[in-house]
Every structure is written in C-alpha cells, then in structure tokens.
Amino acid sequence: MKKSFVPALLLAAGFLCDVGYAQVSETRWVHGSWVNVRARPEANAEVLTHLVANTQVQMDVTASSSMFCAITWGEDQHGFIACNLLGDRALRLEDFVDSYHRTSDSTNYFPARTFWMAPSLSRLQDAGAYFQETMLSPQQKALETADSNFVWEKRPVLKRYPIPEFEAMKQRMMAGIIEPASPYFQPPAPWEELLKLAKSEELPGKKTTEATARLHSSLFYPGVLVMLRQLDLPAAAPSYFKSLDELGKPSANPEELSRQYQISYAIKPVSGPYWNEYEPAGSYVIGWWDLGKADVFLQKPVIKNLLMLDGRVKSINSDLKYSLGVDNCKQGFRFIESEDQPEPVKSLAQKRLESLQAKTKDEALLYFYTLGQLTRLQGPAKVTTQAPVKLQYDSKAKSNTHEHFSQASITSIDIDNDGVADFVIVEAWHRGIMLDSAVHQPAYRVIFANAGGRWYLFDIDQYLICGC
User: Fold this and answer.
1) How far apart are CA 396 and CA 382, in angstroms?
2) Sign of CA pseudo-dihedral 287, 289, 295, 297
3) Whole-model pTM above 0.85?
4) Do 216 and 189 touch, CB atoms closer than 8 A?
5) Taking the CB of residue 108, how many other CB atoms lie within 10 A of it?
6) Of 294, 297, 293, nearest to 321 (Cα)?
7) Of the listed ranges 181-195, 245-259, 429-443, the one predicted with least confidence
C-alpha cells in the first residue's frame, strides 16, 4: 500500500502559516571598508559596531528592505547595514589599484578598503596618506604646502584629529599581523638565470637591464652584468642549506621575515607627523595622517647569524626593530654593520688580514637570518678570498665610466667545513660618482647563497653616501 505525503505537506503548510513567513538567508560580503551596523533599519539608529571589508554575513532576505539589510554574523550577532555596502562575492585585491600604480584617472583606489582585506604596514601608510589627502582642511593643507622655505622657528603647527577607522587600523597593527603575500615579491634568482642575461649582449641594453632589475632592484645598470659575466663562482653542490626558505636575507625587514616565516610583526606608535628639514628641498611633513614615528618589530625573535672575519659564527636573537619615519641609514656597507666606513674603503681581504693581526674590531663578513639556531657546525667556517681579477670592457662600453668596475674578487664561505661553499661574496671596485676618493676602491658586493646545491642571488650591498 502506497504511503500518502499529502498530510505531511498540509502540516508543513500549516506550520508556515502559523509562523507567518519562512526565513530566507543568503550569504553576502561587506564591500565598504568600515561599515556601520545599526540596531534598527534607520539612518539615525544606534551604531552597534563596525564591520570591515570582506566580512562574511548572512542576510535575512525577508526582513530586509531596499535600503537596509538585516544581517547576522559571528556568534549570533545581528543588526542592520546599508544594502549598497554588501556584495554577493568577496572583494579581490587585484580589482583595486595600489599606490604604486595609481594615476589621476584611477577610480578604483580605496586604500582603507584594501587595508582591511589584507592588513599590512604599507597599506596602513597608504590609508593614512589618503586620509590626509581627502580629510585635511583646505586651510591646513595650504599652511603645510604653501611655502616649504619658511623660517624653521615659525613653521606651522600640524593639526590632526582622530579618525575612528584609522584608530582601528593602528590598533590592528599594534596587535600584530602576518604580512600578506605581495605581487612585488621576487624570490632570489638562480645564478644561471642571471648569467644568461649577463651574456645575452656585449653591452647590455635597456631590455636586458630591465629584466635583471626585476631579479633585484639594484641590478639596474650594465656595468654589474659585464662584471658578473667575467667571474666564475665555485662549483655548487648540496651542502648545509636545503632550501632558500631557511634563509632570511641581510636587508630583510620585519615585514619580509613575517611573510617568509609566518610569524607576526607589530607597530608601536611613537609620535604624530612632524616637520623635517632637508636643505636642498626645504621643509616638509613626514607622517601618515596622525601617525609619524613608530617602532616596527617582530613579535617573536628570529636568529641573526653573523659570519665573522675569522670564520666564527655568532648567533643572537633579533626582532629586527626599526623606527618608521626616522632615517635608518648607516654609512658604508650596511650588511657588515660598520658604523663609520672610512675612505678609501677597505676590501674584505684587507679586513680579514687586519683581523688576523688583531688590528681591527670584531666585525662580520655578512649576516643572515634563520628561524632557529644553526646546528651541525664543525668549528669556524672556512673563508677563502681569491686575488682580484682585472675586468675588461669593450669599446662600446666606454661611456658612463663611473658604472664600470676595474676589478672584482670572490670570497667563499664554507660554514660547515664539508668542502662546499655555502655563501659567496663578489666584491667589485670602481671610482663611483658617490665616492670622494679618486682611487678605485670596493664599492659593490653581490652575495650568493647555496641552497639545495644551487647558487642564488641572495642580496646586494653597495657603498653610497649613507649606505642605503
């Protein structure tokens, strides 16, 4: 005998009639950056809280109007939000232009919104700069930009007021975040890829130098490529480091190591915006809305490994703290942390010789970061420096002589004494336009790391006025 489903349907219909309606719930995402959630569907109703971009909510269709949508989120929290600030899909960062690509015609530049989508220090700065651009009164803006050559003692007072959303952004950064992925991040390039570009043209042209600059921002002029292609790195074979992911480069900041090691970093605001006096350019304001100086640091320290001139490895804890809004430049080759690099600059070979003769202070060849302590080291690293190689240039490369290197030397570092180099430092000499001395001297260092038996361009350091 067949069972009848009619009574069940009638019962269900009667139940719906008793309730009055069947709730229809749909998933939505917040499309505003810092959106008011109100207690009632009214423009002046009490604000319960704020929701940020890409917060996922459930919209009660039957309880919503064309202007205000009834939503629930989190642990049974509910309220009303302007319907035009909701979307049926999550926002994507690629749909927005960033500060590097923004033009006067850009209509999709929303730095506050992209901050909440993927918080980072750079996005906090972009948002602060945008608030300053759009929310500073015309009168105050005129005071701060009309004449940068005013008498320093009579400089205008910088007036700002708290913006609740920016306050929340700073609190978010103070609590700590993990740096999100960046479209500008370029992993270290293999040596053979760099060498192929270096040998592609006798005198590397614009196309080649643009390609190498994408491998590293400091590879932007032909002389470096001409120098590198005349050198032979020692043979690479599997040795101490298995993967580049183990190694944090010398120039890394908290943001970079946060992304690499997936550990959080934070900021601590120190002061508001302030006037800076730079003689050639006059006075100007440093700051991002009401944020000026701030400390930036890792919330969990990593290991800073210093390879000393005598081969010893010194390891210390480091949170990579630096001060945002403060000139952090150091004169000389910053990777060896020389506080005062005199001229003429001494080569690594000279420094090592003087170190062995106890004529110099304890100094490092270079340093790098790891997440944990180095193990399995068999005493001091073996350090070998080759005699400098005189470099040759063809007749087409006679212009821009300040970009030419006269000689280069290779220093190999075998940290675990297995007969295979783990780091190589290429040191090159020239008389650059930034150097006061008339003699050629060390001015450029390219650091290679052996990871998994392959050489990679690890970092670059060059001697400039401030070393940065």
Assistant:
1) 40
2) negative
3) yes
4) yes
5) 10
6) 297
7) 429-443
Superfamily of domain 6-87: SH3 Domains (2.30.30.40)
Q: Tokens 């800076």 correspond to what residue?
A: 276
Residue 391 near residue 226, CB atoms below 8 Å: yes
Query: How far is residue 151's CA from residue 212's CA, in Å, rounded to a whole number?
Result: 45
- The secondary element (H helix, E strand) that includes residue 413 is strand 407-414
Structure tokens at 203: 């005198």
Burial class (CB in 10 A: 0-12, 13-18, 19+), 205: exposed
Could you tell me how many residues make up the chain?
Answer: 468
Work out whether strand 364-370 and strand 322-324 pair parallel, antiparallel, or are unpaired. Answer: unpaired
Q: Which of 61-70, 335-344, 449-458 has the lowest mean pLDDT?
A: 335-344
pLDDT tens digits for 285-296?
A: 899 999 999 999
List the domain boundaries for the chain.
6-87, 95-175, 191-249+306-462
Q: Which residues pair with 370 in a beta bridge?
A: 303
From the CB of residue 275, how many other CB atoms can be counted at a distance below 10 Å? 18
* Cα separations in angstroms, 159 against 133, 141, 276, 345: 14, 10, 16, 46
Which H or E element spans position 267?
Answer: strand 265-269
- What are the residues whose beta carbons fall under 8 Å from the beta carbon of 49, sequence distance 6 or more? 37, 77, 79
DSSP state of 429: E
The Cβ-side half-sphere exposure at 15, using a 13 Å CA radius, reads 8
**Residue 412 in contact with residue 424, Cβ under 8 Å?**
yes
Angle of CA points 441, 443, 447, to nearest 5°: 130
Amino acid at 417: N
